[in-house]
Design a protein that fits this description.
alpha+beta, two-stranded antiparallel sheet, 6 strands, globular
Length: 94
Amino acid sequence: MTVERKWVVKLNDVKAVTFQCARANCEARITVSPTERNFQWPQACPMGHRWEFYETERRHSRDARFLIALQDIVTAKDSESGFNVLLEFDEPKA
């Protein structure tokens, strides 16, 4: 018999978002809470590599659009749509 264990998380259960630099040989990280009152996205990694949140002057990047939606969900009191979005992950392997 095979036993699979999964983690199921509601989006509004998110307590922190970690940004990891995608530059070669960097991978520096910054962790922030989207529920903070004066939440601001980091503009660069701790090593100074600039992060862009806009594709054009008026259009956010795909990742930024996700963060905007996540912040809205995390800070909302109740679901306005009548359903909750759940993310499912495999349990980390030791």
